[in-house]
Amino acid sequence: MVVVGLTATGLIVSGLRSGQRENAERVMDQRAEMAKSAVLTETARYESLLEATATGLATDSNMTWDDFDAATSSLANAGLKGASSVAFVVPATDAQIPATQARWRSRGADGLVLRPRGTGHEHYFSIFNRGLRSTGTTAGLDVSAARQPAEAMRDARRMSTPTVSDTYVLLRDRNLPAAQQQHSFVFAAPIWPRTADPQFRGWLLLGMRGQDFLSAVLAAVSQGQLNGELLATNTDGSRPVVAHYFVPGTPDMERQSLLDVADREWTLIIRADSGNLPGAHSPLPGLVLGGGIVLTLVIAGLVYVLASARSRAVARVEAATRELRQAERESRRQAVLLAAVMASISDGVGVIDEHGEFILHNPAAREMIGVDHDTSDTTAWQEHYGLFRPDGRTPFPHDELPLVRALRGESSNGVEILIRNPARPEGVLISFDGRPLDPSAGEPGAVAIYHDITELRRYENDLAVFAGVVAHDLKAPLTVIRGHCEELLEDSLQGGGPSHSLLRIVRAVDRMAAMIDTLLAYTTARDAPLNFVRVDLAALTDEVVQDRTGHLAEDAVPEVVVGPLPVVSADPAMLRHVLDNLIGNALKYVRPGAAARVEISADPVGEGWTRVGIADRGIGIPDADKPEVFERFHRAHADAGYAGTGLGLAICKRIVERHGGEIGVADNPGGGTRFHFTLPLEEYAMKIRPSKKEVSTDQADDEAREKLERALAERAAMENTRLPGLSALPSSAPSGGDPAGTRLRSPAPHHHPADAE
Q1: Which backbone phi and psi does 364 adopt, to 5 degrees?
Q2: Could you give phi then psi for residue 194, rounded to 5 degrees?
Q3: What residue ranges carry the coiled-coil annotation (predicted)?
Q4: Exposure of 227 in the CB half-sphere (CA atoms within 13 A)
Q5: Alpha-carbon torsion 427, 433, 437, 438, what sign?
């Protein structure tokens, strides 16, 4: 068995190696032909491009530098591999040199100086040059000093066809170190005009570096597998090596090809290491040899394995049985622990499979929902469990249910659903978090966590009412104090007595009232319901500007420039507060003795959004304060004597973000500050959905909101009950306009640096 196996393996390996050698010879022929075609294609392209350019120049009897530049620009963009430069060369005898120099200077060869080499023979001067990979050669050189290009040019003029020179070192490369010099050659194309009595005009020379040319061509076709050697046949019969191209490996295969390039014959020698050619070398024979030996040994030992297999199999079964029993005990322990956890936690947990069948509903979840039995029909969940939106009236859509979304692979957080059914007639507000079931569970499905937030919402509403009532109770005595102070102020002014202390009391009362309103606005801006309606931003801005400047004398009215503003979708009361705060800041923070100037504009940003900008020429905001200017109680100019609470910009940020936008600040070019915020346009309104805090949860929420509005109305009524002398100072009540705007508007007393206490 061993002898037969090894003999068969040896024969197979021998056949595989023979096939690999044949495949290597075939691949070598293909690669050599590809290399030959690539070299011929490139040289033919150079020749045709040069000839076409020379033909084009021949049609221009008064060629200038601009004509040459336009004609040769295609050569610069053609990606000629190894090409160094292209030059226009003209013949001239010793007597013709001055006239030739003057003629070509007049045609754009500025500063041309023809430098002949020797006398008594025809000279070939370069007139125009364009470098293709670097700067071109110097104009005015006598190319006839180099034998190889001179012979190629004479042959080209004589035969009227492009020619190739013998190999030599380009004139421009002779100043390089010897290690960097390359064997090069030039293509020469004659420029003969197509007339009845043509007069020869010169040549178009294309310089080529042999090493760069061969390396670029073979790099594209050899794929790191072929060595290359290019030999040229010179006029004297010599065959110098023009260029080499090397790749790693030890070549053991060779192919030679003859190439016809213009009027010359080149030789391309391709060598390769057969081990690098695809299909010519593989580990298959070694694998077959190793596999055959291993297989033979395996078969030889099979008898022994079969003889002792039964006892080993029994031992393995017993070991596997012990592990299985241990795993089963651990699984039961984990299941009991999970069941105990599910029964103990206060949050509800529900798990369904891919068909909507409930796999798990812990006791807390059933207690919240109030339904003892489940249904697998997801479309009947709304009616079965009594699922409504937080308003308590709108049935919750089937496609938006957290578990249904989780089955689609979507995660959801804080989805509020009101559950009202016979077991929960008063309604329970539940917050749901839904997630797709982890694939490690072994089957698709979804899981949801339930949180009862009914009491939390009631607490938040009570807190809002408490804030409104506290604001009302604090403002009422302040209003009385202010009224009596104004009455005393009038009496002191009529009697000529001191009034400075009374003015300080009145201003202190105004600042405290503003602080109370600001704190109430800060709380309301976070929790008050949003009422998205159509808002004419231009009309609202004009109203805010009028409120801020209408009471000023004509010579004291600041310059306010309002550009075209769009119609947006927003809560008018909250948006009014943003505009009032930002415009008020622009009018407030000005340098002493300087007049305020405010620019209000809007630009589209993104799809369905607009960016509103409010720029001023004020004192600006230091760079260190910009990142924190929207934080609560942060004041950038507290040390400069400007009054403020540090909450205005924080309120603006809350309001803008609740509208789905962004707010920022930057320096205004020319001085001052530029605030900007984004709002949804009216046509984009349907894409804006109220957040979970922007929807009243049930009838108790409606009652809480009514209490808050009633407290604010009572406060406004008390402020408008003017005591004697109250009309002498600015009113704290907002001016006319949208009544809804009074909820978030704080009194706007005249802004000035705080008085020294």
Answers
A1: -60, -40
A2: -90, 80
A3: 310-337
A4: 16
A5: negative
Q: What is the mean pLDDT of the chain?
A: 78
First to last CA, the chain: 113
With CA atoms as reference, report the closest residue to 204 among 76, 89, 84: 89
Q: In this predicted model, what pLDDT tens digit does every residue of 65-123 receive, in sequence order? A: 998 888 888 888 888 888 888 999 999 999 999 999 999 999 988 888 999 988 878 89
Contact (CB, 8 A) for 673 and 621: yes
Segment (H or E) for 53: helix 2-58
CA distances from 438 to 412, 445, 446, 448, 629 (A): 15, 8, 8, 12, 43
424-436 and 264-272 as β-strands: parallel, antiparallel, unpaired? unpaired
173-195 b/e (C-beta count within 10 Å ≥ 16 → b): beeeeeeeebbbbbbbbbbbeee
Identify the residue whose tokens are 């005591």: 723
Q: How far apart are CA 728 and CA 740, in angstroms?
A: 27
pLDDT digits (tens, 9 = 90+) for 361-379: 888 888 888 888 888 888 8
Chain mean position to CA 680: 23
AA letter at 291: G
Residue 562: phi, psi to the nearest 5? -115, 115
Per the CB < 8 A criterion, the answer to whether 182 and 209 are in contact is: yes
| Listed residue (530, 534, 650, 631) closest to 582, CA to CA | 650
Q: Look up residue 46 and give its two tokens.
A: 């150079």
Q: Cβ(680)–Cβ(608) under 8 Å? A: yes
Structure tokens given for 12 = 């197979």
Helical axes 65-76 vs 2-58, angle rounded to 10°: 170
| pTM higher than 0.90 | no
Please give the Cα distance from 150 to 124 (Å, whole number).
8
Structure token digits, residue 486: 């104004």
State the pLDDT at residue 274. 77
Distance CA 605, CA 661 (A): 11
Q: Where are the beta strands (DSSP E) in 23-170?
A: 83-92, 123-131, 163-164
Own/partner long-range contacts of 192-197 (Cβ < 8 Å, ≥24 apart): 192/58, 192/160, 193/58, 193/59, 193/61, 194/58, 194/59
Phi, psi of 634 (to 5 degrees): -95, 130
Give me the residue label for tokens 């509005």: 709
Name, in order, each residue with C-beta under 8 angstroms of 148's C-beta and a sequence gap of 6 or more.
165, 166, 167, 168, 185, 186
How far apart CA 544 and CA 736 sit, in angstroms, is 10
CA distances from 97 to 91, 124, 128, 137 (A): 9, 10, 16, 20
* Distance, CA of 547 to CA of 557 (rounded, Å): 12
Q: Which residue has the tokens 């009631």?
A: 458
Q: For residues 405, 686, 583 and 603, what is the CA-based torsion angle, rounded to 10 degrees?
A: 100
- In 3D space, the residue among 429, 356, 354 whose CA is nearest the CA of residue 389 turns out to be 429
Question: The tokens of 315 are what?
Answer: 């031992």
CB atoms within 10 A of CB 92: 21
Structure tokens at 725: 């002398």
Helix (H) / strand (E) containing 481: helix 454-495
Q: What is the pLDDT of residue 360?
A: 83
* CA proximity to 365, closest of 386, 342, 383, 381: 342
DSSP state of 351: E
Per-residue pLDDT band at 354 (split at 50, 70, 90): confident
Tokens of 560: 């306010």
For 72-114, what is the HEC assignment? Answer: HHHHHCCCCCCEEEEEEEEEECCCCHHHHHHHHHHCCCCCCCC
Which residue is associated with the tokens 């509208």?
659
